[in-house]
Specification:
Layout: H1 7-15, H2 23-43, H3 55-90, H4 97-138, H5 144-169, H6 175-204
Length: 206
């Protein structure tokens, strides 16, 4: 499993020219780092003099960031697993009509899974970004750049994951599913871009 590799091994494998791990795993890894930085900034605030009023809020943020970090770590492996499922489906026999139908169904199922997983990463990354904005606004001022780094990494993870969603949608024939997910992608992109433009820069300059 990818999550059992050390960082150097993981990056070496990503650079090797194999199809996986790729952008999907990178997005999940980026989101996990964002959650870690958010959790770190919250923990650097908890119990510190002058931040007693936000101690409870920081504990909530740290706890949720921890949960999301674990979820994003799992997605580092889930994304290539979905990709491999699609590749396995493409290798299925197509000697007759029944084979072709079975193969086509397996491919479409794999593509849907390969779409849903990065969408989950994008949703998680957006939540992490919002948590990071909370620690930037209320947390320890000595760690504000760590919180900002978390917010920007979460933003990158979200946009990267959404790009994977878009590319997979092009091969899915279920128009209802495609339209529903496309609308969600547009909504998430708008929210993330607005948060970046109207929150991160303003908060870090205060």
């Amino acid at each position: 499993m990818l999550i059992d590799l050390n960082i150097t091994e993981f990056l070496d494998q990503m650079a090797s020219g194999q199809a996986v791990p790729g952008g999907g795993s990178a997005a999940a890894f980026c989101a996990a780092m964002a959650a870690s930085l958010t959790e770190m900034t919250a923990n650097l605030t908890i119990g510190k003099k002058g931040y007693e009023a936000v101690d409870g809020d920081m504990k909530v943020i740290a706890g949720r960031a921890f949960e999301l970090r674990k979820k994003m770590i799992r997605n580092i492996d889930r994304d290539p697993e979905a990709f491999n499922q699609v590749m396995s489906a493409f290798r299925m026999p197509k000697d007759n009509i029944e084979d072709i139908s079975h193969r086509d169904k397996a491919v479409q199922e794999g593509l849907r899974k390969s779409t849903i997983i990065p969408l989950e990463v994008a949703n998680g990354a957006l939540e992490i970004m919002k948590l990071a904005l909370g620690v930037i606004k209320q947390g320890n001022r000595n760690a504000i750049t760590d919180g900002a780094a978390g917010a920007m990494l979460a933003r990158t993870a979200c946009i990267t994951a959404l790009s994977n969603v878009r590319i997979n949608l092009k091969s899915i024939r279920d128009t209802t599913f495609v339209n529903e997910i496309s609308d969600k992608v547009k909504e998430l992109e708008e929210i993330v871009n607005n948060l970046e433009q109207n929150s991160i820069i303003n908060l870090t300059e205060q």
